[in-house]
Structure formats: C-alpha cells, structure tokens
Design a protein that fits this description.
Layout lengths: L2 E5 L4 H12 L3 E6 L8 H6 L6 E4 L5 H11 L3 E4 L6 H4 L3 H21 L5 E7 L22 H20 L3 E6 L2 E2 L8 H13 L6 E3 L5 E2 L2 E2 H12 L6 E4 L5 E2 H11 L4 E4 L6 E4 L5 E5 L17 H7 L7 H21 L4
Parallel strand pairs: 1-2, 1-4, 2-3, 4-5, 5-6, 6-11, 7-10, 8-15
Antiparallel strand pairs: 9-12, 13-14, 14-15
Helix pairs in contact: 1-8, 3-5, 5-6, 7-9, 7-11, 9-11
Bound molecules: NADP nicotinamide-adenine-dinucleotide phosphate and guanosine-5'-diphosphate-alpha-D-mannose (GDD).
C-alpha cells in the first residue's frame, strides 16, 4: 500500500484528492494546521473523515515538516496547502510568501535531506499567467503574475523545477485553472454567487454585491481536476502540466446561469459601479457592484490549453460549466441541511 501526505487536507482539493486516493487504495495522511476544532466539515461531508490519518503540520515550521517527512517516508507528497485567496494576498503579501513559497521550499528541502524517492506534486496555478501573453495559455506561455499570491506560487513553481533539475527529484507542477465545486470556499466568486442566490431564494437577503463582472475565467470541476493530480504523480517522468477546460466565461455569465437554477432571469442595466443585475420577471435588483471587491491589479482573462496532459496521461475535463453550476446549486440546498444538522467546522 502506497502512502501519500496531502497538505491542505481541510480545503476543497484536499478533500476530493483524499477521497480519490482512498478509492485507489492509497493510505492518506491528512496534514492539517492546528485550529480550535479538529474535524474538517468537507471530509465529514464526503464521509471520509475517519479514513484519513491526521498529521499536525504547519507549512511555516521547518522542523515539524522535516520530522514528519523523515519519519513517514511518504511515496507521494501533494502540496495543496496555501494561503489561496488572491484578494487577501494583497493585504498579507509577506505571510503569503511565507506559506506558499517558503512552505513549498521547506517540503522540497526536507525530501532532499531525508534522501527519499518521494514524488512531489506542487499546486501551481493559472494566476501565474496573470497579464496573459497568449490565448489560450499553455506550459510554454511566459508568466506575468498580477498578485502577491501569483508571485508566491510562481516562486514555488520554479523551486519545484529547480529541485527536479538539480537533484533529479520526482517533482511535478500542475498548473491548474480555476476549479470549483460545492465544497469551494465561501469567499471565491462562484461559491459566493451560488450561496447568495440560495439565500435570496430563502428570503434571507434581498440582493448581494460583487466586484469586477467582466473578468473571464476558465472554470472546471474540482473532482475532475484531482484525477489529473494523481495521474501526474504516477508518470515515469516528472513534468509540468496545464489542467483546464479550454473555455472561458465572464463572472456575469456565471451569475446568469446560477440565477436560472433558482428560477430568476437576470438582466443587466447601468455601467461600472452603477451596474445592477435584476430579475426581469419581477424587476427586483438582485446584484449590485461594490468597488471594495475590486483588486488592485486584475487578471482579466484566463483560458487554458490542456493538450499536453491529454496526450501524455489521457486526462480531459468531463464536466461543462453549465453542469457544474447546476450541481453547485442543487448541492447548496443539501449542504445547508448538512450544516443545520451537524456541528462541524
Ligand atoms: P482551499 O480550499 O483554500 O484550501 C487551502 C488549504 O491550505 C486549507 O486546507 C488550509 O488549511 C491550508 N493551509 C493554509 N495555510 C496553511 C499553513 N500555513 N499550513 C498548512 N496548511 C495551510 O484551496 P483549494 O481550492 O483546495 O486549492 C488547493 C491548492 O491549489 C492551493 O494551493 C491553491 O492555491 C491551489 N490552486 C487552486 C485552484 C482553484 O481554483 N481551486 C487553482 C489553482 C491552484 P485551513 O483549513 O486550516 O485554512
Ligand atoms: N472572490 C471574489 N468576490 N471575486 C470576485 C468578486 C467577489 O465579490 N466579484 C468579482 N470577482 C472576480 C475577481 O476579481 C476575479 O477576477 C474573479 O472574480 C475570480 O475570483 P475568485 O473566485 O476569487 O478566484 P481567483 O481567480 O482570483 O483565484 C482562484 O483561482 C486561482 C486559479 O486561477 C483561487 O482558487 C486561486 O487559489 C487559484 O490559484
């Protein structure tokens, strides 16, 4: 039985990857940082909280990381833990580097010092393309990050390549474009939109506020994407791969799709901060723009070409944006019931 350490086990991808690895009969050691409570609601929701071996693990603590890796000698190390919210990275640029870049470096250095054959996976990101130089973006597209988060992830990306080239370590980077699911964190735009339409449908709120409606993202389904992570680490040759859908859409379009799922028909009027989204059946305003959600520098468009991973490993996306939105909206109701009946954090 192979052993994998997964950092970020309490996050969206950590939960789905753990579920996928367990189904492949891999022993999963879930690296979590200390918090007031120990259970992750995501692991509990997926029904796998008892199947994962917990490991207290802080990406800013070298000694703890080194000891864990030296003692466990994992076959795989999936580094998904990160300060992952782009907006917050502008307010916490030093902490973001500390965890996202230096955290990855600590893990790499630990594997090297412990002289292990551990296969390392780094959660790289389309944010590294930032102000994009080609459309679509692929593994050869030059990087131009536009946030402290993007900068930190690019540094970690290069560190991973550097350990591969310098020490022959099995280090791979998955350059993942935005991927969403019912388990997505509340602050990310897709989950925020879905949750707010649900709250409107329950008469708990009248409307909600967003920032830039024109940004375009290549959105896929997280459950499809973790399969790509597992494929990448099982290739003989470590390498870097884009995982994406090769389709891009605006935040505005995502709103329209989610609104439909809850029985609203969104139309738009006004421009810039004056723009509103209203239900054309009732004329009620459901969406307003608030500049507080704008970013100091924006990534306007992301669209990824996944030809390389398709050719090398046979991976391709299975879920359309329309199906993804539909599944997020229907699961939102189930999630609400879950939170009403479980005491989880
Ligand atoms: P997420 O839901 O925000 O989860 C982030 C995880 O990192 C959480 O488990 C969090 O633990 C953990 N973490 C944060 N700081 C840590 C620290 N100092 N030490 C140890 N663990 C720490 O993120 P996700 O969407 O699953 O994304 C997984 C990874 O892929 C991240 O590295 C992200 O940057 C990257 N990525 C994501 C996407 C995407 O669209 N989702 C795209 C490209 C790349 P707590 O629960 O304690 O906060
Ligand atoms: N979060 C948020 N909240 N974003 C908003 C809002 C809002 O109210 N209104 C508009 N947006 C726009 C943002 O300006 C951005 O252009 C887009 O929606 C997507 O924002 P997020 O969902 O926060 O995701 P992200 O693209 O910044 O970052 C996510 O994807 C990256 C991959 O490209 C994160 O998961 C990162 O960790 C990941 O690396």
């Amino acid at each position: 039985m192979k052993t994998a350490i997964v950092t970020g086990i309490t996050g969206q991808d950590g939960a789905y990857l753990a579920q996928y690895l367990l189904n492949k009969n891999v022993r999963v050691i879930g690296a979590f940082r200390r918090g007031a409570e120990r259970t992750s609601w995501r692991l509990k929701y997926l029904g796998i909280d008892k199947d994962i071996e917990p490991l207290e693990f802080e990406l800013s603590e070298f000694a703890q990381i080194f000891k864990a890796i030296k003692d466990i000698k994992p076959d795989y190390f999936y580094n998904l833990g990160a300060m992952s919210f782009v907006g917050t990275s502008f307010d916490q640029p030093l902490y973001t580097q500390e965890v996202n870049y230096l955290g990855a470096l600590r893990v790499l250095e630990s594997i090297r010092l412990a002289e292990l054959e551990t296969r390392f996976y780094q959660a790289s990101t389309s944010e590294m393309f930032g102000e994009v130089k080609t459309i679509p973006q692929n593994e050869l597209t030059p990087f131009h990050p536009r946030s402290p988060y993007g900068v930190s992830k690019l540094a970690a990306h290069w560190a991973s390549i550097n350990y591969r080239e310098s020490y022959g370590m099995h280090c791979s980077n998955g350059i993942l474009f935005n991927h969403e699911s019912p388990l997505r964190g509340d602050e990310f735009v897709t989950k925020k939109i879905v949750s707010c339409f649900f709250q409107i449908s329950q008469n708990n709120i009248d409307f909600f506020e967003l920032g830039n409606l024109d940004a375009k993202r290549d959105w896929g389904y997280a459950k499809d994407y973790v399969e790509g992570m597992e494929m990448i680490t099982n290739l003989d040759k470590p390498d870097d791969f884009v995982i994406a859908t090769n389709k891009t859409n605006t935040i505005r379009y995502f709103c329209e799709l989610a609104a439909n799922e809850f029985g609203y028909n969104i139309a738009w009027k006004g421009k810039g901060v004056e723009e509103i989204g209203f239900d054309s059946k009732t004329n009620k305003t459901l969406i307003r723009v608030n500049p507080k959600f704008y970013r100091p520098a924006e990534v306007d468009i992301l669209i990824g070409c996944y030809d390389k991973i398709k050719k090398v490993a046979g991976w391709k996306p299975k879920t359309s944006l329309e199906d993804l939105v539909s599944l997020m909206c229907s699961e939102e109701i189930k999630l609400n019931n879950f939170f009403n009946t479980n005491k989880v954090n």
